[in-house]
Design a protein that fits this description.
With 406 residues, the protein is an all-alpha fold. Helices cover 84% and strands 0% of the residues. The chain has a single domain (2-190, 204-402), classed as MFS general substrate transporter like domains (Growth Hormone, Chain: A, Up-down Bundle), CATH 1.20.1250. The termini are far apart.
Length: 406
């Protein structure tokens, strides 16, 4: 029905705006690391927890938000968590010490954690599986643009008004998203967003076990953990590397890395064609190859301009691979989809936290190029292995459907 379709579209657009704010909060700290280290008189390793602490809190809180969203309504939880994220962003802007800044970034990660995973789960609840990957890809335009804007505005505002201005800008955007979502749940159709359980809610422990008892779910989660550690662990240090190695301003370094978002946006806009032409296995393989090529280029580049095609390729490759993971993530446990997607996101961001922590140590001792080269190898392994397993699963499904194999 047209009205129903219009309402669904409006709700997804609002979720995409909230995802924009959440994704901006994820990446806005990357280009600020050199300025934060200088401001607080610390090495890069000393301020890296502004990134890794955010990611750790983001990952851990998934195990809270997934069941809470399933119990009280995903859209309601997203709206209030978005508003709560404003406090962490404002606290970051006002922080007087590195420890306070890290604490505020942890708070931001803990609140922003609800937005993207629960949005994906909500979309999974309202769209059939055969259309879900394309719908998720459209929703991801918000996340993709947020990642790009975080890199770009973080560096630009750091150069223009200082790192505090970057976090203040984040607070304003997050507040706007939260107010719009709150208006949606308080409107005439707000009750539509609440769950309508017909039975007593399943205990959280049983929901988690329902996801983890499946071998395919465990495999997806392991791949995503490595993907997050390799891709985002290395990517977090790219602006700092360009700034220190080639003498670029933070604005220029952030702008180059924001091309990651342009590559991802290209995938989102052409997702239906990519999916139809390559299939899931082809997307996984192509994504792994592009990511490996991108980080290999960053690792051996002699000129800063090589970062531009590398960032574009990384954005396209990441979303080819990750959107395929996401689609399977929404189907790991349909009866507890909020919990399943929450565990999925938890693995991605715990991987990022571990990756940033490990990468900061490697970069301090040996420089950033070894970090990029290791990421290239790991992401190639993830993409190739996931592609091979997907082909085997699809072949097995076709064989079973024809009745030639029991």
């Amino acid at each position: 029905m047209p009205d129903s379709t219009a309402r669904l579209t409006r709700r997804i657009v609002l979720l995409a705006f909230a995802a924009f704010a959440s994704a901006m909060s994820i990446r806005i700290g990357d280009p600020l690391l050199p300025q934060l280290a200088s401001a607080f008189g610390l090495p890069i390793r000393g301020v890296a927890p502004t990134v890794s602490g955010f990611a750790f809190a983001y990952g851990c809180m998934q195990l809270v938000y997934g069941p809470v969203g399933d119990r009280f309504g995903k859209y309601h939880v997203i709206a209030w968590a978005t508003l709560a994220s404003v406090a962490g962003a404002l606290g970051s802007a006002a922080a007087g010490s590195a420890s306070v800044l890290i604490a505020c970034r942890v708070l931001t990660g803990a609140t922003a954690a609800a937005i993207i995973p629960l949005s994906m789960a909500w979309i999974g609840d309202h769209t059939p599986y055969q259309n879900r990957q394309a719908v998720l890809a459209r929703f991801l335009t918000g996340q993709i643009l947020g990642l790009a804007c975080g890199q770009l505005m973080g560096g630009l505002l750091a150069d223009l008004v200082g790192w505090r201005g970057a976090f203040l800008f984040l607070a304003v955007v997050t507040l706007a998203a939260g107010v719009l979502l709150a208006g949606e749940i308080s409107g005439p159709s707000g009750s539509d967003h609440r769950p309508r359980p017909h039975t007593a809610p399943t205990p959280v422990r049983l929901q988690i076990l329902e996801v983890l008892r499946r071998g395919w779910s465990r495999a997806i989660l392991a791949w995503v953990l490595v993907e997050g550690a390799a891709a985002f662990g290395a990517f977090a240090f790219a602006p700092t590397y360009l700034h220190q190695r080639f003498g670029l301003t933070l604005s220029a370094a952030g702008a180059l890395m924001s091309l990651f978002g342009l590559g991802g946006l290209g995938y989102a806009l052409l997702a239906r064609k990519f999916i139809a032409r390559l299939g899931e296995a082809g997307l996984a393989l192509g994504g792994g190859l592009l990511l490996a090529a991108a980080f290999l280029t960053l690792g051996v580049a002699r000129q800063a301009l090589w970062a531009a095609p590398a960032a574009l390729a990384a954005g396209l490759g990441f979303y080819m691979l990750h959107n395929t993971f996401q689609t399977h993530g929404t189907q790991m446990a349909p009866a507890a989809r909020g919990t399943a997607v929450a565990i999925f996101a938890s693995c991605l961001f715990l991987g990022q936290a571990l990756g940033v922590s490990a990468a900061s140590r490697i970069a301090d001792r040996a420089g950033a190029p070894p970090v990029f080269l290791l990421a290239a190898a790991l992401l190639l392994l993830v993409g190739v292995s996931f592609s091979v397993v997907l082909r085997r699963r699809h072949q097995g499904a076709r064989t079973s459907s024809t009745g030639t194999l029991d």
